[in-house]
Each structure stands twice: as C-alpha cells, then as structure tokens.
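Handout, page 2. Input:
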Amino acid sequence: MSTQLEPQELQSFRAEPKKTRIEARAVIGDKGRLVIPAAIREAMGFKPGDAVDMHIEDHELRISTRWNRMKRAQERARKLIAPGRSLADELSAERRAEAEAEARQ
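Output:
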C-alpha cells in the first residue's frame, strides 16, 4: 500500500522519522540503472548529488546516506543513555582531570 507523506512529515523526517510505510515499484533499466521514485527520495531526504551507501541484507537491497545511518545510530544510543546525562560533558571532565594530573607530575 502506497502512502503519501504530508509536508510537515517530510520536514521532520531527518529529526524524527515517521513509522510510515511507503511502497513503490521501479523497473531496472538499461545498464542496471534504477530510478528511486520521488516519494521515496523525499521521505529519505535524498537530494541530487547525495552519495548513498547500499548493502544487501536478508535478500533486500538497502539504500541510505551516511547521515541517515548516523542519525539512526544516535537514536539507538540515546535509548541506552539516561535522560539528562551528557557523555560529551563526561568526556570533557575526564580529559580536564587527566590534563591536571599530568600538569602536577
């Protein structure tokens, strides 16, 4: 079943992807070329000139940008970190403590 995204959903995709299923059919053309349908390009935030990474998993071709994969990794990590905890602040504090300890030696 195909689903069209509303403009507000498209704008928020990169920050908070919607769990909307979008399906489309495409035909592999001459020389193995495949055109990604506009609705899918828009939903994924693909822009002309973007580099995409592809891999095969469970007999499916998966296409994404490094930016989208990074955001997905951040979302997964966020679930493992307690609210209000800043790993960046903790790392900075550790580095400052190490620098102070080295300065005293």
